[in-house]
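QA checklist item 7 of 12: single-chain prediction sanity check.
[x] sequence parsed
[x] length recorded as 185
[x] structure emitted
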Amino acid sequence: MSWLELGVIIIAGVGAAIGGVVVGFAWAAVNRVWRPAIISLLFAAGLGLGWYPGSILTSRVQAAGIEAFAERSNSLVEAIRAYQREHSRAPENLDALVPAYLADIQETGVPAFPRYLYTNQRGFCSLGNEWHLAATGSGRECLLLCPDWNYDSIAYVTRVYSGWADIELLLEMPQGVKVRLPTCL
């Protein structure tokens, strides 16, 4: 979750809490009954106490999920590196690793990024990387592994988790223009 999304969630929560208080007090003033005002204050307090910690928790759960994904992906990354050491080049595709290096190519285990993408071409990362591995789905971001972990030249990296960069595929440019990168690789 980006800081912008977190900010929107917090603003929406504060707006809902203030709106609830205003509606409750308006109802109380019109009907001369104070029970709705008290209920609206309790609603605002509950929303305020739960909304911000909930959004922070969501961000931490997402980070923990990506860290677990990175740990699960280690066997695949090590298999690519072992192939590269033995053959002095990166494998043509992930299927070249089966069965000598891996029993099979597993899915990522992350519903938002269900499959791995691999290329043995230089490009998205710096030229020193002979291969790239990504986990992608249909959403607006993907996870990318540059073997040398050099993400400084990639402008749309939102965060790096255990060597995997979280890449924003839907970029907002000036004047509200949105540009979608075609793929992580």
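[x] summary fact logged: The chain is about 45% helix and 15% strand.
[ ] second reviewer sign-off
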